[in-house]
Amino acid sequence: xxxxxxxxxxxxxxxxxxxxxxxxxxxxxxxxxxxxxxxxxxxxxxxxxxxxxxxxxxxxxxxxxxxxxxxxxxxxxxxxxxxxxxxxxxxxxxxxxxxxxxxxxxxxxxxxxxxxxxxxxxxxxxxxxxxxxxxxxxxxxxxxxxxxxxxxxxxxxxxxxxxxxxxxxxxxxxxxxxxxxxxxxx
Length: 186
What we know:
mainly alpha, 9 helices
């Protein structure tokens, strides 16, 4: 039961943060969403920072497993990149939400250090994975691959933010298509 309650808290918090950001996360509102007393949340997470850091850590683990599985399947570069960009589109399709780390990154100055640190880890994980995929092409030097991976991650996050702002996932898809046509994204 306790594990189920903790999972329900984390899932409700993830949806809230993806929609309203760190500043929109309230233990009182979260307790209403989950159907428990506000004080009960403190049993699982002492502070909003603890909860948010745990959310980003879980989010990173989830997407690390998903992305690593793509590599394990032996998919080609274009398929890996298509599946990667599709994840961000699916997030937008879920009530126009943003990537959890992207949303929190925009609030960096208001975040406790433990949350900032987890957001950075998520970005680094994305960049490492993208670099692995780009290295499959075998034609660039490691530093060039690192820089391109960071540019792709930034471009995809930015495309998602613009589409979110306009409330239109087709804007995201249009921007990603331009990135592909230009060669930024294979």
